[in-house]
């Protein structure tokens, strides 16, 4: 799994910046909510270029470098396999992100060989504060990290990088904090880097934040076949080993499953998503009383299959608005568009009631449309759930209601 690392390959990144993606507040203005993280990343890289002899482009890595068509799982796994230092950017959203938790856990996996030999795992995690978060809100993995943030400045500790980089009066504080963080990254990279290791697919590693629970559960059900159980004639291009790997917009997003986008967006809004296939969730979705709000991501091709339609009978009943249906229609998928009329007939036969509900989204044309629409879908499903969810009184004996009494009573 791991190998010694006496000098390090100069082409390997000094650090991997792990951060939680922030969705745009207004999807119509075209602004980029994560440009401030990229600004911090570039300034850290510039400092490291001056402090070391690292070649151009090898100072650090963040996933903004991914381009359309890249295999994002392979690229991130490769960088997690070779980076010397892991820099998590702490924020409330960070510890709700399943992807960030997997990046953290995959990086630590590289030290498992040393642990098996009774050797200590290097302290190669250098955290940074993006926005302040109470230590009690952090998962155990973060609470065990020994790092004195005060070395980067008192104002940085109070405001985080986002706070001090946005206001001109804190410019000197920001400059000092970025320089100190860059020096710390270089020091750890030279003195105690993580040993080399091969991470085949970081998405298969359990998140390091599994003990960090959000307050609002939500069910995300992927209604799609896997590549071994496709409808007759359907190409396997958009499918994977399990339904959750279905990627209807593969031509435009670098082969990232739609369920991963849904999980990321749900966690960023404080939900605890449970993602699974229809056969895993059918019983709960068919129950008369809701167990959680739910969103179903429906591949039209799945509704052409008899076993799928049979599973949907208990779900497609009126008055169950805590379950919301979203149907992607990729206009660039020639096979789907050629069969559009037939697929829509199958959809209506299988989910006629759900598709006519006001909250249903029966036509999601692009990945951007999905990412922009899903947050509101999650909110509406949660509102309907709260209207129907059973309320339980607290344990213990009941008490009479208090009442006001007059002065003469």
Automatic annotation (TrEMBL):
Q: Which InterPro entries match?
A: FxsC_C, FxsC_N, TIR_dom, Toll_tir_struct_dom_sf
Domain TIR: residue ranges: 15-112
Name this polypeptide is given = TIR-like protein FxsC
Q: Where is this region: Disordered?
A: 385-409
Q: List the taxonomic lineage.
A: Bacteria, Bacillati, Actinomycetota, Actinomycetes, Streptosporangiales
Q: Which organism is it from?
A: Microtetraspora glauca
Looking up Pfam families in the UniProt record yields:
TIR_2
